[in-house]
Structures are given as structure tokens and as C-alpha cells.
Design a protein that fits this description.
Helix content is 49%, strand content 3%. The protein contains seven helices and two strands; from the N terminus they run αααβαααβα. A two-stranded antiparallel sheet has the order 1-2.
């Protein structure tokens, strides 16, 4: 770093509520496989989601249900380099059980009972929110002295 500033890896900001949606086992930590799920969603172009939504929206109501969403995510993971390479964690010897979508994200989109539907506008809004949240987290990481600036 410039100006002789030391770097610390400790994050000095409140936990991200959106990030915690990917914590599938509710341990307060994001595992590698949970992170891959997060990265997969971050990298979904709106146009790709629109196409997938149309493909999986069988009844034509403009929304998808929980099971259709899981299929969309599986498809999106195959289209994403990190998602395709690391989807099961085996590349790094990690043991993964269950779907990385089975967690807070499903409840967020589909409600506690899992019966709500996810529409295009809501998902696009979520993508925008998560992109903004990621930018804020990254900035806070580098602004480890909480000055509102980072070294150039």
C-alpha cells in the first residue's frame, strides 16, 4: 500500500443483510460454496435472467416458483466460469451437502412457506441492491481506518 499504510484483513463494518441470505447453514459465515452461489447471482446479466424467466415460466404469469428458480440458478451456474468450475466444491476438496440455494435466499424470494413467485422486476431490483452492497463492502474493506477514503 502507498504511504506506508499497513493492511488488515479484519472488516470493520456491520454484516451485510443481503450477504447473509447466502448463508445456507445459518452459521453467520459464508463458506466457499455459499460464496460461489453469491458470485453466480452477481454475474447474471439482466438479459440472461429475462430469457431464463421466459423459458421456465410455464404458466405465463411473468414469475417463477421456487423449484423453477433452482433450475434457473443451475442453468446460470453452467454459464458462469466460477459457477461451472466450483459448483460442488470438489475442485478444492470441499464437501458440499444439499443445494447452495437452500437457505435464506429462497425464503427471501419465495416466503416462509415457499409459495410466493419471483418476478422479473423484483429480481432485477435485488441484483441492483446486491451489486451496490458488494461495492460498499469492498470499499469498507480497503477503508480499514474508516476515514471514508482509500489509498490510491
Amino acid at each position: 500500500m502507498s504511504n506506508g499504510e499497513s493492511f488488515t484483513s479484519e472488516l470493520k463494518c456491520p454484516p451485510s443483510e443481503l450477504f447473509l441470505l447466502f448463508d445456507t447453514n445459518s452459521d453467520g459465515l459464508i463458506s466457499f460454496t455459499e460464496y460461489i452461489s453469491f458470485v453466480t447471482i452477481l454475474r447474471i446479466p439482466e438479459s440472461s435472467f429475462s430469457v431464463a424467466l421466459k423459458m421456465f415460466n410455464i404458466d405465463g404469469d411473468g414469475g417463477i416458483d421456487k423449484e423453477e428458480f433452482k433450475k434457473v440458478m443451475a442453468l446460470m451456474r453452467t454459464q458462469n466460469r466460477q459457477g461451472a468450475s466450483h459448483r460442488d466444491g470438489k475442485r478444492f476438496g470441499l464437501k458440499v451437502s444439499g443445494s447452495v440455494e437452500d437457505g435464506g435466499l429462497l425464503q427471501y424470494f419465495f416466503g416462509k412457506d415457499g409459495n410466493e413467485r419471483l418476478g422479473h422486476e423484483r429480481f432485477v431490483w435485488f441484483l441492483q441492491e446486491i451489486h451496490d452492497e458488494m461495492l460498499q463492502l469492498e470499499f469498507r474493506h480497503y477503508d480499514f481506518k474508516s476515514r471514508g477514503t482509500i489509498a490510491a
